[in-house]
Amino acid sequence: MKKRYLVILLLIFGILLLIGYNRYFYSFKSLDNATLFLGPIESPDGQYNANAYYLEYGGAAGGVMYIVEVEQMQTGKKKKVYSSNHKDDFSLSWKPSDILSIKNESPKYNDYRNIDLNVNTDIYEESGAACRSLLLKGEFENCYEAEDIKVGFMFKLLGF
Predict the structure, then answer these.
(1) If you average pLDDT over each of 17-26, 56-65, 73-82, which comes out highest?
(2) In the chain, what are the helix, strand and coil shares in percent, each to the nearest 5?
(3) pLDDT per residue over 119-131, tens digit each?
(4) What is the pTM of this model?
(5) How far is the C-alpha of 18 from the C-alpha of 124, rounded, in Å?
(6) Of 46, 68, 140, 145, which one is least surrounded by beta carbons within 10 A?
(7) Per DSSP, what are the bridge partners of residue 115?
(8) Among candidates 92, 98, 107, 96, which has minimal Cα distance to 52?
(9) Which of 159, 129, 157, 160 is nearest to 144 (CA)?
């Protein structure tokens, strides 16, 4: 009987540990299996290059995720700044030399993941996992996520 309780307790502890790890130790997906979709797109002053990759996930029933990586040309340092699910229309452009404008939208479905990011201080991760991550905290000042995901989650909690 005590053995059963110990096994259940260890199982619960393991599940909570796994949830905590996934919640607070998030890092952007690896680009090992990703395909270059767009880029390199050079910033107006030549300091940065931006590349957009798409990464398939979930097999036949899965989807496609866009990940944008920016490389600082002088140092060669690369940083992932954007991650979101695929929408119908995707593009990258530079505004001033350190502001990357990302367009990722499906107007037909009123679904927009467009944002202007300062590549030195900002990141965007659709689910908000990067905003909670202890691993990424020192790499950004501003973290953005999809607002409609928060609203949808609140409706689920309230039972709508």
Answers:
(1) 73-82
(2) 30, 40, 30
(3) 999 999 988 888 8
(4) 0.78
(5) 24
(6) 46
(7) 102
(8) 92
(9) 129
